[in-house]
Amino acid sequence: MTLDQLKPGDEAYVEKLCSRDRLGRRLMDMGVYPGLRIRVIRNAPLEDPMEVELDGYYISLRHEEARAVEIACK
């Protein structure tokens, strides 16, 4: 399952990043790493981007970027 499939209010743990190129590096720079607990806060009105909470701060990700994050539900 990937992060883009979660709905607002859902929580999960990051299993792995499926991108090793610039996107993978960007996600790591934003603080997305394996083992992290992540919670979806909301989606924009047209579903893109999505706001997520990780380690007490909030980031926005496009669904295309969120597809590169494999998760395991709680």
From TrEMBL:
Pfam families: FeoA (PF04023). GO terms for molecular function: transition metal ion binding. Transmembrane segments: none annotated. Keywords: Iron. The keyword GTP-binding does not apply. It comes from the Bacteria. Residues 1-73 form the Ferrous iron transporter FeoA-like domain. This is Ferrous iron transport protein A. It comes from Desulfosalsimonas propionicica.
